[in-house]
Recover the amino acids of this structure.
């Protein structure tokens, strides 16, 4: 986690079916795996995993949609079909390979690496990077974006940290996205996430 952070500052994973909650507790035996759920069934997988005691995370944002002719504010997955799961390699394998209730679930593979069998291994997100991603997206802000590099017009190559406001603590690079100054962060081998508008006064340069 970022320096000074405590696990309790991150949201608990809560099952929509049973109300079961699981806290995010850093564990040297666990890794952040990325799972892909076919046909938009990431919420179903999330509920199963949380009920099983496994901390899981789906990045979401609020969008306005017409539901039965009425305009409503609803939550929508920011990166379609993906959920992030904090567990051991053994348990991750069991979920993907030997759990009938999760037959629609697969690993999201790292297509930039090969393992000893010359196959692409499951993608693992570094914990610091994952913590930054959670910090940027847990507010469900409607202006969050999953963006392509061409959409980001960077002001410089400097790394920055947001020091105030809703996105306080998020680290990334300053860019203009959709005509606004935002902070853009990278999620390994998956893509770029843009915050909402960030005032210059809320940004400080950080040294790497």
């Amino acid at each position: 986690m970022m320096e000074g952070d405590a696990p309790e500052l991150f949201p608990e994973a809560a099952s929509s079916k049973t109300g079961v909650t699981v806290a995010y507790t850093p564990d040297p035996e666990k890794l952040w795996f990325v799972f892909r759920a076919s046909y938009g069934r990431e919420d179903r997988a999330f509920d199963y995993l949380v009920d099983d005691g496994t901390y899981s995370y789906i990045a979401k944002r609020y969008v306005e949609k017409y539901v039965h002719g009425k305009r409503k504010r609803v939550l929508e997955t920011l990166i379609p079909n993906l959920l992030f799961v904090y567990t051991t390699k053994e348990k991750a394998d069991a979920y993907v390979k030997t759990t009938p209730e999760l037959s629609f679930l697969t690993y999201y593979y790292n297509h930039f690496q090969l393992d000893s069998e010359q196959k692409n291994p499951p993608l693992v997100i570094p914990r610091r990077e994952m913590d930054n991603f959670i910090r940027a997206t847990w507010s469900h802000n409607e202006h969050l974006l999953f963006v392509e590099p061409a959409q980001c017009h960077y002001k410089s190559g400097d790394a920055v940290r947001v020091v105030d406001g809703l996105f306080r603590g998020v680290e990334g690079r300053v860019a203009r996205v959709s005509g606004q100054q935002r902070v853009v962060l990278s999620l390994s081998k998956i893509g770029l996430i843009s915050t909402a508008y960030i005032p210059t006064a809320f940004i400080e340069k950080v040294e790497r």
Notes: The two ends are 16 Å apart (CA to CA). The helical segments are 42-51, 89-97, 127-137. Residues 7-126 form a domain with the Alpha-Beta Plaits fold (CATH 3.30.70).
